[in-house]
Amino acid sequence: MLALAELHNKIKEAFEVFDHESNNTVDVREIRTIIRSLGCCPSEGELHDLLRFVEELEPTGYIRYEKFLPVMTKVLLERRYRPIPEDVLLRAFEVLDSAKRGFLTKEELIKHMTEEGDPFSQE
């Protein structure tokens, strides 16, 4: 029971950082940052699925803490969206670093991140 209370406290603290009006709501655009600050790394698709559960029936652009807490508690208890282990990331980097230089140029990184896998936007 204590662990659950500590988990709720952790979620509340992360949420409050972005609750600028102190009204138990945050801008929906901040949810990704809150989730990542709690140690989760969902893909864009997974993030959209999460938002379906926490947004109001009529989206307002804001997420209420009362709806976010149970969803995020379940995510954390189930240990979903865990970051990729360091050794897996290193192997992936080595694949991208075909010249074996130990680094990627800015242009190479942009190309890989915007054209492959779950692509990011230019921003």
Automatic annotation (TrEMBL):
Annotated keywords: Repeat
SUPFAM superfamilies from the UniProt entry: EF-hand
GO-annotated molecular function: calcium ion binding
Pfam families listed in its UniProt record: EF-hand_6
Family annotation (InterPro entries): EF-hand-dom_pair (IPR011992), EF_hand_dom (IPR002048)
Domain EF-hand: 6-41, 84-119
Transcription in keyword set: no
Highest taxon above the source species: Eukaryota
GO CC terms: sperm principal piece
Protein name in UniProt: EF-hand domain-containing protein
Organism field: Spermophilus dauricus
